[in-house]
Amino acid sequence: MARESTRSKVHAAVLSLAHESGLGAVTMEGIAARAGVSKQTLYRSWDSTGSILFDALLARSVDAGGEVAVPDSGDLSNDLRALATGMIAELTDPAHERLLRAVTAELQADDGLADRFRELLLVPQQSAIVDRFRRADVAAPDDVAELFVAPIFHRWLLRSRPFCEAWVTAHVERIVRLAEHAATPGLPRREG
Amino acid sequence: MARESTRSKVHAAVLSLAHESGLGAVTMEGIAARAGVSKQTLYRSWDSTGSILFDALLARSVDAGGEVAVPDSGDLSNDLRALATGMIAELTDPAHERLLRAVTAELQADDGLADRFRELLLVPQQSAIVDRFRRADVAAPDDVAELFVAPIFHRWLLRSRPFCEAWVTAHVERIVRLAEHAATPGLPRREG
Amino acid sequence: MARESTRSKVHAAVLSLAHESGLGAVTMEGIAARAGVSKQTLYRSWDSTGSILFDALLARSVDAGGEVAVPDSGDLSNDLRALATGMIAELTDPAHERLLRAVTAELQADDGLADRFRELLLVPQQSAIVDRFRRADVAAPDDVAELFVAPIFHRWLLRSRPFCEAWVTAHVERIVRLAEHAATPGLPRREG
Amino acid sequence: MARESTRSKVHAAVLSLAHESGLGAVTMEGIAARAGVSKQTLYRSWDSTGSILFDALLARSVDAGGEVAVPDSGDLSNDLRALATGMIAELTDPAHERLLRAVTAELQADDGLADRFRELLLVPQQSAIVDRFRRADVAAPDDVAELFVAPIFHRWLLRSRPFCEAWVTAHVERIVRLAEHAATPGLPRREG
DNA sequence: AAATAACCGAGACGGTACGTCCCGTCTTCGC
DNA sequence: GCGAAGACGGGACGTACCGTCTCGGTTATTT
């Protein structure tokens, strides 16, 4: 398997290409040229630009300390607001956005990639959020977490409505209200 | 602009190609060949396969009676359940899914296409749903409608979790509960 | 089929490449680049570098007036000497040799090319020589012509022995002697 | 230099590849794989597929008893006919032809290979034939031997005319006639 | 017998060329 | 005079070999 130096050269190349020239400019030949690597070396380790892109994202995420840090201050509202703000910041960060959209686009056509994406990035991240709800004794924490996260992705993926501070506040408030009503009744809750 | 017969031949060609051979097989040359039309004719009316695909989807949607029929029986829960089931059925219909995913993927890279998509397909559909909530005197009907729709798209786009009947029921119940609490208080509601 | 200007650009390119850089440097990509032509254009009209090379040689030969000029002064010895000297000059001309060797090498591996080569270049040339012998009333002119030509090619192809003036003279003398003995007896011969 | 077992494995590999898959299929990588040898081992001992091919042919020829056996029954005509028939059989033997053509093709492009080929295979073989003519007291035995051999190679290399029994007979007869006239006059000849 | 070197298999690597597909433009020719 | 048919320059695809270059794991001495 690929030498470590090769992998990192390739990762750097694909990230810079995706960032500066957009999605369509990410080609196997372009990556090879930018990384100073032969095409065969790419094909030995990856089977598509999507794989490389995903691998690069994953490596970066691992380097960056790995798991998503879900804040847990005891105040659910504040924590969710911070979380939402962070997610939005990451999704709309000009340095990342094109890259993330590229991967999302590839997911639509490549089932294998979608599987890896789900298992390695989506599930861990979502689990962390679910745990935060569970710690707040929310019933059906999976579903509530999804309800919290989905509108953010929806707006981003379908560009249906722009993000704004007011909406984040209102959204968090709605989710918290829902969570309270869904909280297991009769049990002392760690937080109010 | 293209002759009507040309447009329909092209629409038929692109739909059949997308359906039978997958996303990658939709090329300008392929469409031209399948439609019995010259490439120049395609380029005169469209600028990418995404445009053609989108145009075809739009035409089909118009032919099919146009707007999404949001049920309005007076029973919000039943109506939402029917609506959700219908959306899920359309999104996962093997005859359409590849096509819809193809367009979604193109949206990530093509801002102009994303704009047209939002204005011509997304907004009308979403408005109809918002209207349904408004008719039920739900406060912030836009946000609630989004909260209703987003998890469905989220599951479909990121393939995060499969669809199942039980989830639909629970999801609708959660949305309705939220809507009730958000309903403008003090006004007689058409439904309970 | 290819535009005439394309053909001539390609011919010029392949001839110059073969001349200056040797046999191995003649590649489809190289020809395309040198000719300012796309690879697809080459593949539309030819299936190998050998075909292009052969086509170029043929075109050049046609442009140059076509058929081999076999001298016919009435003096068989002198004519044969001139013919042999001309053939040797052409085969060893530094401007052509690599090119001719390239084609000869390709003939060994490509039956179709060998057929075309034989029919379009070899047979006409050989026929002209046979005719010269026939006009001298030589019996079995085909075989004698072959006996005349073969050693020249043999030395060239297998590099068995170098060419020199003395050998040419001796060779021609031997062939003429053989031809005289083989001449149809009892008939007045045009030449002695 | 390579271990003897390696050499023979490589020879076997290259011969079988050339035989079964044709000239183009003989590659360094293919030979290494077939022989169960690393590429580096090949490059340590040879510099091209042509070298290996030639080396294999040479080894085979040495194994087979080495020199060409030129028949010497005392009857020049019969001996030459046998010799010609043998050469033609070898050249057109389906088991060898592709291989021999491959080497001949390589000779056109590789001067060093051509030198080795001439010295190690061609000269010894040709000398044996020259000796046969010399024993028959033929004058200029080199040239006559060449005249005898050249048409056979000519027909084979340029595929100019097919081999047939009648031609062999006529060819031998012509050569013998020429040889008689060229025989040193006034000396008793060992044969008539 | 253990130490030491030479050799070898395996195969990653930067490259070049292959032959194909599709891009978007431009030209030709028939209805 | 419009439009199909398709040639054209170009760029990327994925593959096959090239010749070079480490790697370990034998072999075969050499001590």
Tell me briefly what this model is.
With 192 residues, the first copy, chain A, is mainly α. Chain A contains nine helices and no strands.
What can you see in these coordinates?
The structure is a homotetramer of 192-residue chains. Helices cover 72% and strands 0% of the residues of chain A. Chain A is elongated and about 60 Å long. With 192 residues, chain A is mainly α. The first copy, chain A, has 2 domains: 4-63, Homeodomain-like (Arc Repressor Mutant, subunit A); 76-182, Tetracycline Repressor, domain 2 (Orthogonal Bundle). Chain A has helices at residues 4-21, 28-35, 39-45, 49-63, 76-92, 97-109, 111-135, 141-157, 165-182. In chain A, helix 4 (49-63) packs parallel to helix 7, helix 6 crosses helix 7 and helix 8 runs antiparallel to helix 9 (165-182). Mean pLDDT of chain A is 87; it is low at 185-189. The first copy, chain A, starts with a helix and ends in a 10-residue tail after the last helix. Chains in contact: A-B, C-D. The interface between A and B is large, with 39 and 39 residues. Chain A binds a DNA duplex (31 and 31 nucleotides) through helix 2 and helix 3.
The appropriate CATH architecture of the largest domain in chain A is: Orthogonal Bundle
Distance between the termini of chain A: 52 Å
Strand content of chain A: under 5%
Shape estimate of chain A:
elongated
